Amino acid sequence: MSKSLKDQFLKMGLTNDKKVKQAEKHIKKQTKITRTTGEVDETKIRAEQQRQEKAERDRLLNLQKKAEEEKKAVRAQVKQLIQMNRLTDYKGDVPHNFIFEKKVKKINVTAKISDQLAKGRLAIAELEGVFELIPPVVAEKIRQREPDWPIILNEKAPDTGDAEEDDPYAAYEIPDDLMW
To answer: Which residues form a coiled coil (predicted)?
Structure first.
């Protein structure tokens, strides 16, 4: 059987035990490095994936925060529109009923204001639990900015002559002093 190269060099005296052990340590170190480089690559890949996932989460969070800030700004604009354009002297003795969130609500207004509300010349907007009267132009601006804002606006019905012709009660006159 042939002897290993290490044994042959030791027998000839070309090397000593100290150098042989040092060479063996170096070889073990090299094999260990080559084994761990595969794991290091996997670790690097995992770290890169985690970094990318974190960047994506941060980007989504930033988008959510930006959307919330924009929504908050729009709500502030709507509140300002209502506060700047609301009517202040509308209180009177005539009750005006309207539907708000599937419930009938009532505000007391003057007869003139009640007529304007019925014809769609004024709108009712809710602001912090209080109903405010605003012009229909402002109500449309609010609907453009915030479509879900609670606004009650009677749409103006188009005047059609056909409805009057088919009305069986057209011959009966309603007294002007009758309040419904």
So the answer is: 46-84
